[in-house]
Amino acid sequence: MQELSSLFNRGGTTNAALLQVGKVLWDVSYKETQDDGAALNKIVKHALNFLLDVKEKNPNSSDSLCCKSVLFWAARWVDQGAPRIVLDSKFAAFLIASDVNPEVLDLTPPWKAFTIDVPSDLFEIGKDVGSITSILVHQYYAEHANTPENKWTVLPRTDRGNLCQATIGMSIKDMCETSEDNEPSDGSLSEARTYMMINRLVASLLLALKDPTIMHEQKKSKGRAQRFRLNKDTLSPRTFVANKPTAINHRPEIVEYLNRTKSFWKNPEVAA
Length: 272
Known about the structure:
There is one protein chain. The protein folds into 2 domains: 2-79, no CATH class; 83-258, no CATH class. It contains 9 helices and 8 strands. The chain has helices spanning 2-11, 15-27, 36-46, 48-57, 63-79, 89-97, 172-175, 189-208, 251-258, and strands at residues 83-86, 113-117, 123-126, 130-139, 151-158, 167-171, 215-217, 238-242. The N and C termini lie far apart (49 Å). The model has no long low-confidence stretch (mean pLDDT 75). A hairpin with a 3-residue loop joins strand 3 and strand 4 (130-139). 38% of the residues lie in helices and 16% in strands. Strands 1, 2, 3, 4, 5, 6, 7 and 8 form an 8-stranded mixed β-sheet that branches. The chain is α+β, with helices and mostly antiparallel strands.
């Protein structure tokens, strides 16, 4: 679809571009139905030519699947009110270092799709790629599959607006894994560890959001939170700040591990 191609080419995957894409796809999906399966079918049908073009250009890659996930996420994100969670460096490190319980089943975050903004100095992939500054997250859905509520898709995005390696349909338990058994021995070790820490961050935040006091909506002028109206021509995300006082800053340990100066990951003592 030319409209989607031009939006991505013009704005990359910035929030503004994804809001425009999401609004286009929301109009043909969630505006008509709240059933995820029906909405996904409508999105794929509407964006079929665009997805086929991506697959034709990269037949041996997972770009087509990743692109489908992004389109589905964008429509869902708009439908959920475009929530954006902002984390500071200390709290993000606290979440990564937390020993989460992967067996939690009653996981019901406030939204099915949202973004997480993280400090640029936490997840640096490399000079050619940049730093991970935001993560697109949404609840996994697959046609003809009985997927539990705690499976999620994670799409990291760099400060240059590029999407990185996606984690699609991963359980909380798998997201918390920090095994070194299958780590690459070449120069991609730091990158592999970065994606592992990103998954841990998302899993920990999903569980932390069970506590309603951990997050508040950022207010705009006149002391009012911004209202999200789908009938507006110009949309903007609703920003939420998540934080919790922590006694210890675990960022140095995480950076040391990501920079390969620490050979293995072990959860440090987490002080609240």
